[in-house]
Specification:
Elements (H helix, E strand, L loop, with lengths): L1 H35 L5 H4 L10 H10 L7 E4 L2 H6 L2 H12 L5 E3 L7 H14 L5 E6 L10 H4 L2 H5 L9 H20 L25 E2 L5 E2 L7 H13 L13 H5 L3 H15 L3 E6 L12 H5 L4 E3 L10 E3 L2 E2 L1 H14 L5 H5 L5
Parallel strand pairs: 1-2, 1-3, 3-6, 6-7
Antiparallel strand pairs: 4-5, 8-9
């Protein structure tokens, strides 16, 4: 009899333990949901990286939201186009060609990740209906999530990311409760964190040119006249080639399994193109090659189904034009600028026929 009473007591204690666990889990879930609903100033998001290589996210937000200058042409993508396509130089060339002021903004941000490019395009198109042309970078492989995506996206954009099979989805979604609580506090006391809820006085200006030498806010010099040593360029180029195709640098169509596990690039590229179309803007894809790359090292057709594709492959073999294996320097930019100006000629009808926005 005593043994049966003991068994019943253990069963009762076990039941209470499970009830307590259930209460804790439910409470944690409710806390997470409530934290996601906390309000904050959206500008705070784009200031999270303002002392790093990604400081341009802050400039992008300021250029889009606070600067009254129109944006007729935008450049969106990774550091390849950030470093190589001069907004002011393209602006001058197009203005001269079209006989009226054309404003160009290079909104590209270092690192790959088409999901971030889609978010930048969304910000742009929601606030600048005059935008008629968007140049989007293309690289050989960009099937990753941008490290800033989870920081700057709206909650619904994070939750609306491709779920199957997105290896970043759970990490990004799980980050939201902490992020929302942090942004809520930063919005209440921005000065404590070196942030601001309104336009800052240290805005770099409309004409900031990421293809010229500058220092990031943390002090590091970005020397656009740097010429990479040939041995270093060769080594970096070989590393890039090794990661492509079968390891020999020649592009091969990805397997069905690989495609299933890498949905971000095709999904977000299609979303970006569709957003642009809905807003009456044209997307033109631009491929700037890494040093000594081979022709056709990516799926041309996938991009050409969504819009025109311009490929600067012809400039890939001059080591004097590269700062490192993946980025042109000012000597390369001197070749890229006139090439791009000419290559864009067939796609300027919307700018020619559009009403002046000035």
């Amino acid at each position: 009899m005593a043994e049966n009473v003991l068994d019943r007591g253990e069963a009762v204690e076990t039941g209470k333990a499970w009830q307590l666990i259930g209460v804790l889990v439910a409470g944690f879930a409710i806390l997470c949901v409530l934290s996601v609903l906390l309000p904050h100033n959206r500008y705070i998001r784009f200031q999270q990286f303002d002392q790093s290589d990604l400081f341009r996210l802050r400039w992008d937000y300021e250029r889009i939201h606070f600067d009254p200058t129109p944006i007729d042409v935008a450049i969106i993508g990774s550091s390849r186009v950030e470093a190589a396509i001069s907004g002011p130089e393209l602006e001058a060339a197009l203005s001269k060609k079209l006989g009226r002021p054309i404003h160009v903004a290079n909104l590209a941000v270092p690192y790959e990740g088409r999901n971030l490019h889609s978010i930048v395009a969304k910000e742009l198109l929601a606030n600048h209906p005059e935008t008629k042309l968007i140049l989007v970078s293309v690289v050989e492989r960009a099937d990753i999530s941008h490290p800033a995506f989870r920081y700057i996206s709206d909650v619904r954009d994070v939750l609306h990311a491709p779920l199957w099979i997105n290896h970043y989805y759970v990490i990004d979604a799980a980050f939201l409760p902490y992020r929302q609580m942090s942004y809520f506090v930063q919005s209440l006391f921005p000065s404590w964190f070196g942030k601001s809820n309104s336009a800052r006085t240290d805005y770099l200006g409309t004409g900031f040119d990421s293809t010229q030498t500058f220092r990031i806010p943390g002090g590091r010099l970005i020397d656009r006249y740097l010429v990479g040593p040939p041995q270093k360029l060769e080594k970096e180029a070989e590393e890039l080639k090794t990661g492509l195709g079968n390891g020999d640098g020649n592009w091969v169509r990805p397997s069905a399994w690989y495609t299933l596990n890498a949905p971000l690039e095709p999904v977000y590229t299609a979303r970006l193109a569709e957003m642009a179309k809905e807003h009456g803007a044209q997307v033109v894809f631009v491929h700037l090659p890494f040093y000594s790359s081979l022709p056709g090292q990516y799926d041309h057709a996938a991009y050409e189904r969504l819009g025109p594709l311009l490929d600067a492959q012809q400039f890939s073999n001059d080591p004097h034009s590269y700062a490192d294996g993946g980025h042109f320097n000012r000597y390369g930019i001197a070749k890229i600028s006139p090439w791009l100006d000419s290559a864009l000629d067939p796609y300027l009808d919307s700018l020619r026929s559009g009403n002046a926005t000035h």
